[in-house]
């Protein structure tokens, strides 16, 4: 007799609903009703329900996630797609706390995360429609990145796919987003420099139109205006090559013009901040003894051990968690009330800014 036949045969692998039905002495339809929560409201005897549940426990039955997703059109997977070169693993990287917030809140909301990284190696320029289409494996997706492929992302949104961008993206109508309040935080840094006695302040930023950069510049200029200080184009230096254009000679020239405080924006590369630090050092100057430096954000990971820059901290863990909660709302079809939430940034006193040096100092 074949040992794999007969009522005593043991099936290898994951227990199926048919196995639970045999163990409980009921039909597979009854097992499906009980284990599915009986959403149809069919009358079942309590003893039958308990027998099915006990059989499922004893056999170690767990629902097949693929079958469940087919039945519900949901699979409890939340995607995360980065347009940066790689997903960072360094705990000092600016994205690390953001991803921590995403992971913690996704777990609290009952979602597993799927990281889509296959097309991020060359940035948004290499992203194809097919690359973004992979995110449809998840119920919804969070997108991260300073620059994004607007056309491909718009197509997802137009198709009704639940998407949330981490960072302001109001140029894409219909795309939900969560961002930091860079405008208020940048204006606050300028206010504090003005209160310390600085009358001429310059912002160094990268030459692009990323929303994070434009928000910081807007806040910087609003801070100058509120303090009654000179603003306009002369107060902002946009540079495509900070290391080449922010030099010791230029720092000396600025100081000769009466500029006593310099502000840099935070970016993925930290180019503006690196250039300022390098130029100040090459000029034989130190902060805050000879001039003041401020950073609108956090320093790059490899400079974190240096002097703590005056500026503000972006609450990245809170941003990540807020984005997950917003995505859950989008996936559930809740109506959103624009504008999307802005998360406040906390001022960081740091050690690189102080009162301006005495005249001729």
Helix content: 25-40%
Q: Strand content of the residues, in percent?
A: 5-15%
The unreliable regions are 1-12, 120-126
- Total E-strand runs: 12
- Average per-residue pLDDT, rounded, comes to 83
In CATH, the topology of the largest domain is named: Rossmann fold
- Note the overall shape: elongated
Q: How does the helix and strand content classify structurally?
A: alpha/beta
Gap between N and C termini: 101 Å
Can you identify the CATH class of the largest domain? Alpha Beta
Q: Tell me what the CATH architecture of the largest domain is.
A: 3-Layer(aba) Sandwich
Number of helices: 13
Q: Can you summarize this structure?
A:
Helix content is 38%, strand content 15%. It has helices at residues 17-24, 28-35, 46-59, 65-72, 95-108, 129-133, 150-158, 182-195, 211-227, 242-245, 248-256, 271-282, 316-331; strands at 77-82, 112-116, 140-144, 163-166, 176-180, 201-206, 236-239, 261-265, 292-296, 310-313, 342-343, 346-348. It folds into 3 domains: 17-63, Orthogonal Bundle (434 Repressor (Amino-terminal Domain)); 77-181 and 316-343, Response regulator (Rossmann fold), CATH 3.40.50.2300; 182-314, Rossmann fold (3-Layer(aba) Sandwich).
Would you give an account of this structure?
It is a single chain. This protein is an alpha/beta fold. It has helices spanning 17-24, 28-35, 46-59, 65-72, 95-108, 129-133, 150-158, 182-195, 211-227, 242-245, 248-256, 271-282, 316-331, and strands at 77-82, 112-116, 140-144, 163-166, 176-180, 201-206, 236-239, 261-265, 292-296, 310-313, 342-343, 346-348. The protein is elongated. It folds into three domains: 17-63, lambda repressor-like DNA-binding domains (434 Repressor (Amino-terminal Domain)); 77-181 and 316-343, 3-Layer(aba) Sandwich (Rossmann fold), CATH 3.40.50; 182-314, Rossmann fold (3-Layer(aba) Sandwich). The strands form two sheets. It has a six-stranded parallel beta sheet, with helices on one face. The protein is built from 13 helices and twelve strands. Mean pLDDT is 83; it is low at 1-12 and 120-126. Helix content is 38%, strand content 15%. Helix 11 crosses helix 12. The longest helix is centred in the middle third of the chain and has 17 residues, at 211-227.
